[in-house]
Amino acid sequence: MIRTFEKRAEQKISGFQSPAADYLEGRLDIIEKIVIDPHATFYFQMQGNTMAGYGICDGDILVIDRSLKPIEGAFVIAFVAGFFNCRLLLKDKQGFFLKNDSDIVRETEMEVLQIWGVVSSVCRNVLPKALRTGRYKDVCTL
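Above: the chain's sequence. Below: its structure in token form.
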């Protein structure tokens, strides 16, 4: 679960401005950085290490943007053989294909590649196992 914080009102100063005003900053809202279109954003949790060679590991949270057009070189979520899969979208002379660490999926006459969305961010829990307890069990970072 990703929590958001309310935006705070901007400080307006009349008269003499405080010398410390140069140091006033708004709070970083991580949602603004990773979610561009909230209505088209979904979250998946990676299961398995089929994309570990590309830096996407088991347990990572994938931020998926369905409003983005998939292009060559993008990590995508594709519907293959009845399951959602995270794959790298590539192109060669024969057309587009999906690749992971162990196999390649090409479009066939029977099955058209169904790209469901584009992976825009990957979140990973980097806490040592001893700290992954209680409410910190599922913490992820970018």
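The longest strand covers residues 83-92.
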